[in-house]
Design goal:
The chain is of the alpha/beta class. The protein contains eight helices and twelve strands.
Length: about 300
Amino acid sequence: MKMSSSVVAYSFRHIPPLKQRSIRYFSHQRPLRRPPLCSPCSVLVATSTSSCSLPNSASFTGNSLFRRMERYWAASSINKNKGMVEHLQRYGVIQSKKVAEVMETVDRALFVPDGSSAYEDSPMQIGFNATISAPHMHATCLQLLEKNLQPGMHALDVGSGTGYLTACFALMVGPQGHAIGVDHIPELVTMSIKNIEKSAAAPLLKDGSLALHVGDGREGWVEFAPYDAIHVGAAAPEIPQPLIDQLKPGGRLVIPVGNVFQELKVVDKKEDGSVSVRSETSVRYVPLTSREAQLRGY
């Protein structure tokens, strides 16, 4: 097969025995246009001599190819939110009933630009050099944080973008908990509030257990700290200390870390305050940076 340019990052993600295991590659910024079917996911690294095509790998975020798929997951094959969730379950990305339920309840179509293929497993540009991650990345992070998103807990979503994952957090922690989204682009915060007002999480926004704020997410959000769960939707060169400080003992932080080569890090704070860090998988995200640098295109 031929592909137009090389994929810069790929990895095998080790997961418990499932019906099918997955092979993933991740990149950042623009949506993936799925190629026509050539063979069942036989190619990970694209070359310049292939008959199928992918966009430049430096221009999209959070996608994956699944091994032994009968065909590529294309927008034409996913036309409902429930169908998207079922695909994620089939390929072992969603492994729990709770994550499946919350992703079925929060309709992704409300959080992507008008006219987009909302249920395609692809990231999408949302303006201001930002993206909404692909559904499988949201599912992966929800799975990693599930035990820290129980009713009554506190959750922080850094780089909350269009508000999708913050809404999922809010439904999981419920009205007795707090779900806080932080983004340094005011227009995105305004957009996310409007999106959530149309979603199943609207009552939680109204009662104040779900809130979105303009701010530098690298500094966290002190008001509702410490947090049981913190998610960061952009890659930091190193883990910001304020986020570790605002993590509750027993809490978990999920954050992509690195520059050219990035790893999704899982940070657990133990009851004695000590911290352990492990790598979940190789990823490619837009950088976690200042508002000015983001608007300049990094």
